[in-house]
UniProtKB/TrEMBL annotation:
This is RelA/SpoT domain-containing protein. Residues 1-14 have a biased composition (Polar residues). Residues 1-20 are annotated as: Disordered.
Length: 286
């Protein structure tokens, strides 16, 4: 993380919240250390409510960025509560819900590689974006699959960016919420949706495989072979889904000629259309 980002957050202090939330100063200190983004609260119900509060700001930001880049914006579906609980109470990653940064989601669809490069220039480096009205949004974490193939996570060629909104809670306190902003090629939208359907099948198979794992840990010898067979069946479904998603991913890259983006480095000095460069990692959205 750049020295510029550390300086941005070392000069501002915020009060601790009576509600037990993580304070802005705590989160900015974590950002300066390069720690992963973490929501202000652990309770999914609070995080769902926070996502609703920032929805209007998130939609406005997404539209302005899309307009500046020449693309167009979409708001993502609301996060499913049961999915949140399954994801963070199961074996998937072992973290609590405060590490979930896509309760609120939006998408910018980009029409060509030139727009993709401009999006990379603006968002691929963690740092601060400041709107013309003074609203500050921090780019906290970036997964840039445009410029680097991700074999572990066989998604489409895209860029997922976690941005931080400051907002006022219903109790009148200043807080923050992490929002997931996705950049994808407009011509790959149908592929993106198809890939997500495959991902959902894979996720179901993972749940069943975990169940078979648990059963194998407690069953007797007479039942072990049956559960082992089920485990292998679900594991094969997972591997098949992974291969299918990878095939979709590579098909998109080939069809749209995206391989030429591999290794592309963000240009901090590049002036993006309708975006005024205010120094390293700081832009004003007009």
């Amino acid at each position: 993380m750049s020295q510029d980002m550390r300086l941005i957050h070392s000069t501002t202090e915020y009060p601790q919240f009576k509600s037990g939330r993580r304070s802005l100063s705590e989160e900015w200190a974590a950002a300066a250390k390069g720690e992963p983004p973490q929501q202000a609260a652990h309770d999914p119900a609070i995080l769902f409510a926070d996502a609703q509060i920032i929805q209007k700001d998130a939609e406005s930001l997404t539209r302005r960025i899309a307009r500046a880049l020449g693309g167009f914006a979409e708001m993502g579906p609301e996060k499913d509560l049961y999915r949140v609980l399954a994801k963070f109470n199961g074996k998937e990653d072992g973290k609590d819900p405060s590490f979930n940064c896509d309760f609120s989601r939006s998408r910018v669809l980009l029409r060509n590689k030139s727009q993709i490069r401009r999006a990379i220039d603006m968002f691929a480096t963690p740092g601060q974006i400041e709107l013309k009205d003074g609203t500050r949004i921090m780019v906290r974490e970036v997964e840039n699959n445009f410029t680097c193939l991700n074999k572990r996570k066989a998604g489409l060629a895209n860029m997922d960016v976690k941005v931080t909104f400051e907002f006022t809670t219903a109790e009148g306190e200043r807080s923050f919420h992490h929002h997931e902003l996705q950049f994808i090629p407009a011509d790959a939208k149908a592929d993106y949706e198809r890939s997500h359907e495959v991902y959902k099948r894979k996720r179901v198979a993972q749940i069943y495989r975990d169940g078979a794992d648990n059963a194998l840990a407690i069953c007797g010898p007479s039942e072990a072979e049956g559960w082992s067979k089920k485990w292998r069946q679900y594991d094969a479904q997972i591997q098949s889904a992974q291969v299918e998603r990878w095939s979709i991913h590579m098909g998109v890259r080939e069809r749209l000629g995206l391989d030429e983006l591999i290794g592309y480095q963000p240009c901090n000095s590049c002036k993006v259309k309708k975006l005024e460069n205010q120094g390293p990692n700081l832009y004003v959205v007009q």
